[in-house]
Design brief:
Blueprint (H helix, E strand, L loop, with lengths): L3 E5 L3 H13 L3 E5 L2 H4 L9 E5 L7 H9 L6 E5 L4 H9 L4 E4 L4 H13 L10 E3 L2 E4 L4 E4 L2 E2 L4 H11 L6 E2 H8 L5 H15 L6 E4 L3 E4 L7
Parallel strand pairs: 1-2, 1-3, 3-4, 4-5
Antiparallel strand pairs: 6-7, 7-8, 8-9, 10-12, 11-12
Helix pairs in contact: 6-7, 6-8
Length: 223
């Protein structure tokens, strides 16, 4: 069964081109042209979202924030804005990738395929592996190369939050909210340091993203 991809793009010519390339690559695109209409869409019905920033009816970043309240579905941002601050803001709000216009269709397809190849755990899902780290949500267990690792509740929630979106940066504030019942971004750094130590060599898979927060990668070279 083909992966369903939601495209939110108001440019008729560009949208038609993207839909054609996605279909040609074996995906099942659903195209919405209006931001207000996209607000009513359930993101978890799709494997991935491609979201333009400048939309009629609502702003793309507002849609991004709306979707991230309930869903971990991968989201790629399309934008003609090339300022670094815009990209950083989108990543901080939960975007997984940012593609600037104009772009080659092959580039977009490569980004889509790369994102879909990465394992992810949606809310309530079972085991997932990123590199040498395996996390089982149901059993609340963690293994590194098959060996169990004992984590505190905070460390487990922190690792789980990162592994929901491997390869994508998560902000420090988002990690505090996901893992710490009470704490600050400063105490978050302490928990990350302890988590890395408990994971041993695999702790290097947790990479600091300067100015944003942290991410987890399958291959240390990706960091």
């Amino acid at each position: 069964m083909a992966d369903r991809i939601l495209l939110v793009e108001d440019d008729e010519k560009l949208g038609a081109q993207i839909v054609g390339h996605l279909e040609g690559a074996g995906f099942e695109p659903v195209w919405i042209r209006d931001g207000a209409e996209a607000r009513a869409v359930g993101p978890d019905a799709f494997a991935l979202l491609i979201l333009d920033l400048m939309l009629p009816g609502t702003y793309g970043l507002d849609l991004l924030k709306l979707y991230r309240r309930t869903s971990d579905v991968p989201i790629l941002i399309l934008s003609a804005r090339q300022d670094t601050s815009d990209k950083v803001r989108a990543l901080k709000l939960g975007a997984d990738d940012y593609v600037t216009k104009p772009f080659w269709p092959e580039e977009l397809l490569a980004r889509v395929r790369a994102r879909l190849r990465r394992p992810d755990i949606r809310r309530g899902d079972g085991p997932v592996r990123v590199g040498s780290i395996a996390l089982d949500v149901q059993r609340r267990s963690v293994e590194v190369d098959g060996a169990p690792v004992e984590l505190t509740r905070v460390e487990f929630e922190l690792l789980g939050a990162l592994m929901r979106r491997p390869g994508s940066a998560m902000t420090r504030r988002a990690l505090v909210e996901a893992a710490l019942e009470a704490g600050t971004e400063r105490t978050l750094d302490v928990h990350v340091s302890r988590l890395r130590k408990k994971l041993g060599d695999a702790g290097r898979q947790i990479v600091t993203v300067w100015g944003i927060g942290y991410k987890i990668v399958a291959d240390i070279a990706e960091g």
